[in-house]
Design goal:
Length: 230
């Protein structure tokens, strides 16, 4: 799987694209960070990629533009930016919020971010295809991760997966619709098999150095996400 990235990406991130997508030395590790110091520490410890956000106490929201700029400039590994304008457990957004998300995506892209992390649902809990089409289009040519809005989606697990694939998302971040990825490992394993090479299924939530090896062996997922990784 390969993606067309923004001009200058190869110069900013000297790692070969295939290295951080395929993880030749094991699964790709995405570290969730909220400050420049955390991001630098994660890179030094061997993270393959950063997901940048703020306010993890509410599940993360869009970081400030200054923070996006500073982290992208400081790191040599890819930085994906979470786009979530407010705390919303239902992930339902009004049109003016969608427009703000598009503006934040455009800034992140121009600042040199490597990818966008986003998700939107309808009031009845289905994947909001209309909103997501706008957000995915605004993200081009960057890869999009559909985040854990999937875990509270009311649609069938596999139907929702197919819709996310059809939207053109590059990866799905999910706990397997459970409180932790370990508890959701059964569904995660099924999602990985169902997805094949069409999308990356990336387990997240409660993934730690202590359970990473077992989770990797059980799910065969190519990438993992966590605040305690690597």
């Amino acid at each position: 799987m390969s993606f067309s990235l923004v001009p200058g990406f190869a110069q900013r991130y000297p790692k070969d694209e295939g290295d951080w997508l395929s993880g030749p030395d094991g699964p790709v590790i995405e570290s969730c960070c909220t400050t420049l110091e955390e991001a630098r520490s994660a890179e030094a410890r061997g993270a393959d990629r950063i997901e940048l956000c703020t306010d993890l106490s509410v599940g993360g929201v869009t970081p400030s533009r200054d923070l996006i700029h500073d982290v992208v400039q400081a790191l040599t590994i890819p930085v994906n930016v979470l786009i979530r304008p407010r705390t919303s457990l239902d992930f339902v957004y009004l049109e003016d919020e969608i427009q703000q998300m598009i503006a934040d995506i455009e800034y992140s892209r121009s600042a040199g971010a490597a990818g966008i992390v986003v998700g939107a649902l309808t009031p009845d809990g289905a994947i909001d295809l209309a909103a997501m089409r706008q957000l995915v289009a605004a993200s081009q040519p960057l890869p999009v991760t559909f985040h854990r809005a999937y875990d509270v989606c009311t649609e069938d697990s596999f139907d929702a997966l197919e819709k996310i694939i059809e939207l053109g998302c590059a990866r799905l971040l999910t706990s397997g619709r459970a409180a932790t990825a370990w508890e959701g490992r059964g569904l995660l394993s099924q999602l990985v098999r169902r997805a094949g090479d069409r999308i990356i299924v990336m387990p997240g939530r409660g993934v730690t150095p202590a359970n990473l090896s077992d989770l990797s062996a059980f799910t065969r997922a190519p990438e993992f996400h966590g605040t305690q990784l690597p």
